[in-house]
Structures are given as C-alpha cells and as structure tokens.
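Quick one: co-fold with iron/sulfur cluster.
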Amino acid sequence: MSSLITNIQGYSIHDGPGIRTVVFLKGCGLECIWCSNPECIFPYPEIGFFKNLCTKCGQCASVCPNQAISAKVGQLPVTNREICCGCGACSAVCVQEARVLYGKAMKVDEVFESIKADQLFYQASGGGITVSGGEPLLQPKFVSELLRKCKEAGIHTCVETSGYAPESALRQVLPFTDYMLFDLKLLNSDLHRCYTGKPNELILNNAKIVTSSGLEVLFRMPLIPGINDDPQNIKETADFLHSLGGKTIGIQLMPYHELGKGKYESLDKLYRLAGLSTLEPEQVETVQEMFKARGISCTISR
Ligand code: SF4
Ligand code: SF4
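Sure, here it is.
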C-alpha cells in the first residue's frame, strides 16, 4: 500500500508533544485561501519550479518524456502543466534543485523505516510521529496501517486534521491514534464555505466524535486577520468548545504567516492573500484574552 508523500520532516517541535517526525500526505478536501502547504492540496504529483535557483542550463527540458518544458537559450524554462504527468524526471536531473517533485509514492514500510530512524529522539522527548498534509483522513487505509506499525514499535502517534473527511475514515484511524491536532477555522458555515471551499457541518460533527471518544485532542485555529479573528467567530468557537466537554477545553492559535508564498509561485498558483499584513503579537494576545474571558484555555503557537 502506498501514498503520495510531499515531505518527511524530522525534529519538529510544533506538531504535537515532544520532538516529532511529520509525514505530509498529498490531497485535501479543502482549499483554504491561507493554506501554507499548497503543494499538498491536489492528490497527484506536481512540479515546483524555483526560478531563483535556475541557471538556465536546459537539462530539464532535454529529459522530459512529454516535451512539457520549453527552454530557450539564456531564458528560464517554461512548463506546460497541461501535459506534465508529474514523472519527476526533470527534478532528478536538476543539480541546482530548482525543480522539486511534490508527491513521491512511498509504501507504508518505507515511511515507517524513515520514521524509525529517529526513535531515540522520540523516547527522550516524549515525541513520535505526526501524520499531516493535506488531509490524512482522506487516506484512512494507509494512515491506519502506518500508525498501527508505529504503535506496535512503541512510537507515539498523532494525526493533524482539518476534520473534513468521512466519519467512517475518522473511525478507522482513531484506534491507532494517541493524540489529535484538530483545526477549527470558522464556525459560520457560509463563511467557512467562502474561505475554504466547503461548509463546516462535517467538521463539527467529527470534532464531537473525536472528543467523545476520549482521545486527547488539541484544537487549533489558524488566525487570519479580517477573516476569522472577529469577536463573533471567537464567541461561536468558544461556545462550540464548551458544548464538546471532553478532557480539556482549550484551543491553540496559529497566527497567519506568509511562509507558503514562495511555493504558490513555484506551482504557478495565485497567492490570494497577497498584501495581507501579518498580525502583531498584541493583536494575537487580544484574541487569546477573548477566549480566556469565555473560560477557554488558549495558547499561541510561536
Ligand atoms: S535543469 Fe534546473 S537549473 Fe537547469 S534549466 Fe532546468 S530548472 Fe533550470
Ligand atoms: S515532471 Fe516529468 S512530465 Fe512533468 S515537466 Fe518534469 S519531466 Fe516533464
């Protein structure tokens, strides 16, 4: 069984307890306009091109089996994405690493071996593996098999989810999950649809299932200025968290950043939040205080 992996990132301290290895899967049911991982949205391989690294050597064009790259002497190569099949031949020959293949097919065992290499760090720090994306719950067979192997090896398991996945997929993965990072973006379903492409009823229902299962869960909110940092959304989110009960009532804020911007350009995708300012620390703390005033413990991801 295999899946398309965009990255396996070691030594993460922001994606669950302790030091963790994060496995990024390709494919997501949402298209949040603030997404910082645009390479993880579509469930097929894509080529990223970082023109600042390109020396215009033309090697990539000479190996493309589909003649999808046109490279004129002294000019940057241009990729026709309509006929690119994502084979990765061009990225394999680009010594400048200007071309990156997003989405490498990997088997469960291959991913597991890569994770296992850092087991000593997990044991020393209380860390483990986090499966992220994209949306891991859209590949429940792969994820549950990977997490099952990890648990058998004594590795702590975490799933980072948008919650936008069939309930059956969630229930398939839950038994192999020790900890969950669950995004709550917007409580108003119409606004949720406007900014992510989908309504939120499925997500809210899955949040209830996770909480009532007794699993340890950390709800997280990407905090996007002018989109979901208003008092009404904070109130509705706090009310929803109270309605869940569960082990802990809390949320972590993840302030908007522009770190994904370069990847949009590399994929010839429009960065729809161009010009949006990041939040000042005081603005984030104001939202934190709004949650606290409503009895919700609230931390800020740095
Ligand atoms: S192989 Fe790499 S450096 Fe050479 S033209 Fe292609 S993208 Fe640029
Ligand atoms: S990924 Fe394959 S098909 Fe696409 S541009 Fe590169 S070599 Fe051509």
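If it helps, Residues 231-244 form the longest helix (14 residues).
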